[in-house]
Task: structure prediction
Amino acid sequence: MLKEFGHLYSDDIRSEAERQFGLARAGSIPLRGSHSYVFDYPGEDRSVILKITHSSHRQFQQIMGEIDFTDYLAANGVNVSRAIPSPGGKLVETMEADTGYFLATAYEKAPGALVDWCEWTPELFEQWGALIGTMHAFSKSYKPSDESIRRGHWHENRDWHLETSVPGSREAIRRKGQRIKDWLLSLPTERNSYGLIHSDLHQWNMLYDGREIWPIDFDNLHYDWFLSDFTTVIINAVICQAHCFQEGDYDSWTGGSRMDSAEFLDYFMDPFLSGYKSENTLAPVWIGRLPRFLSRHYFTFYIDSLWDPEFIHLPEDKQAADFPWRTLRQMEDEVRNDFWEQFDFRRFV
Result:
């Protein structure tokens, strides 16, 4: 996504954002971001994370909606980082660009660090599920402080504008997407199964402080079925598990034993769902729908890859060199053949 507005960004934009939030660049650390420029400003009393994104990705009201929800979670005891107002009293500062504008937000830095795959354990999976269950439970009672900052619904995402998101040369994929969309629109959206979700709480968007998980990056916050928060976690965990095991890179999370993907799902889902059920109740019928929801998520994953100009022009060995370790052709084949529907989740009900 940064590629879409990178030509508008400059060091002057960062300097202005730092000035507005009273941050000194000396000692700061650039961090990796998919949709924002992100920087860490370590401090003795408090470390600050600065995020800068363009209005073509998020509008001012959308970012205020993100802050509103994370503040609500924090007020209810959930481990989330709060936004920090600028010295001028604003939670979001804006900077004009040649086209559109940039928005800057500062957050308290969450404690902890990413958890290496070799250190995953069933206890971590249980905490992961419990955290998502807690956020879903609070989502049921959440109301935006102002209707103008209410976040959007899943079908408003550009991936689901199928006439423009899927190239005409891939008509079969477009028809597949339409079938998925029609099925989703037929599902109930009552408060016990549908609400505001993080939607991107994979292993790179959570920090572990040795005791508890801290979720980060609520940029993709939107209204969706609660089950959709499961799919991000499962797809990323299973893909990484398969790759790590292929490379011989595994340790405490499996007791040193090799597992295929189906065996790993048992190992992962039992503690994950146990944690989730300790904080929120989801009707068993939804667990049975997980394969189709996984196919739905993977469809959007493929569409996003299809629109990455750098990725699609790489030779296949380069395409498969980084996560998800698949070529575009492999991903399209998996979408066409419903790769994720080979897994039976009814045993977890």
